[in-house]
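=== RUN LOG ===
request id: a7f3
mode: sequence -> structure
chains: 1
length: 98
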Amino acid sequence: MSVEHVEILEGIKEKIQSIKFRLKEQQDENRRLKEQYEELQQMVQQKQSKIEELEQKNQQLALVKSIMADSDDVNGARVRINRIVREIDKCIALLNRS
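=== RESULT ===
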């Protein structure tokens, strides 16, 4: 082989090694990005769970708030129920007389 061929082969070997090195770097970066992606996916799932939990708590608080707001109406409702019960008792008493 001539010197020229040897130089060409050496150049090709260097380029192949350079390509191998870049390939290894790309594979490492790809692996790192996949791991980062998986971590981010887990974080998203955790955040979704937290959002769902907070939404449930929010609904519960809204229900409690609506019940608390209606507590003033509870006394009025008791008065109306007592009035209705008295009327029913009067009706029963009238029916018993007959």
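=== NOTES ===
Residues 3-71 form one domain.
Residues 3-69 form the longest helix (67 residues).
=== END ===
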